[in-house]
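Revision sheet: structure tokens.
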Amino acid sequence: MTFIRAFSRGLQVPLNYTNEVKPVDPTGSRTAAAIALTAAFLLITAAAAQNVAHSYEMGLHHSQFRAGVLAIASVGASLLGPFCFLAAGRALGRWRVGTAAVAFALGCGCLAYAGVCSLGFVSGARDLGTANRTVVSDARSDAAERFAAAKLELAGLATTKGRAALERRRELTKIMADAAAEKRAAGPAPAADSQASAVAFVLSAVGWRTDAATVGPWLNLAMVLYLELAASLSLLVASALAPVRSPPAAVPDNQPPTLPGREKAAHGDAPRSRTAVADAVVATVRANGGKVSGGARKIARAIGARKSTVHDAIVALAAAGVIERVGSDLILRS
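Predicted:
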């Protein structure tokens, strides 16, 4: 008797190994997966770009070499993080808890490093905007003060006669014209941080009294958390949206299902090795009286296969109802 063994490159999905065909999971589509992958690419690229910009600028304060090293580290952390979380999800789907834990820990490290860089970039951008608004505001205030002082002095010289008074009135008129031109060149009066002000207004409306200066740093943190978490988990979401592989076709009750690759074996080609491992697992359990203790490690040594491949075969055979797992014992069902 032969048995079907399906191995997926993505997250493992238990398939039906009996002759009864269950409906295909309607969730997942190629279009949704493609859109998610595009969004993941954009998020990862944006996160990496801002992290590299901040790291390079920070390193330039010391040397060009240090700037390059920090930039390379930022690229590595930004790109490796999403793949670590994807690997952790896939390993957990195959019950490889150790591998999943290592991948998750490494992903968290990459996320922390990238988050610090991103926080520096966002905070620096907000600080630069605040500084520019301060410069414009100071320039307008200085021009307004000079204009007002010259206007006041000019009003005092309105009744004064003489050549000196005339020359001074000309100087004051020019000062007022220059001050007005500088004020126009500085542009309109800059508003405070509009984003922080809007959030502070909403919070105050719901009863939490605060101001824009207090909200600003928290907005920086919120932006960083969104971008870095979205970029890190984007590949995992795209993988989950991929279409599910269809189950095997139904066969008559009196005919056992055919192993993938057995058709080629009839023409002289070897069957797939993983399918052969599933057959070898069943044969080993049957040869030991229908029960084997020791789990995947013992069978892997007996048949000369990798433990991970044997473990996957056991999981699939158990899902198909071919064998039963009781602790570390494998029992062949009749």
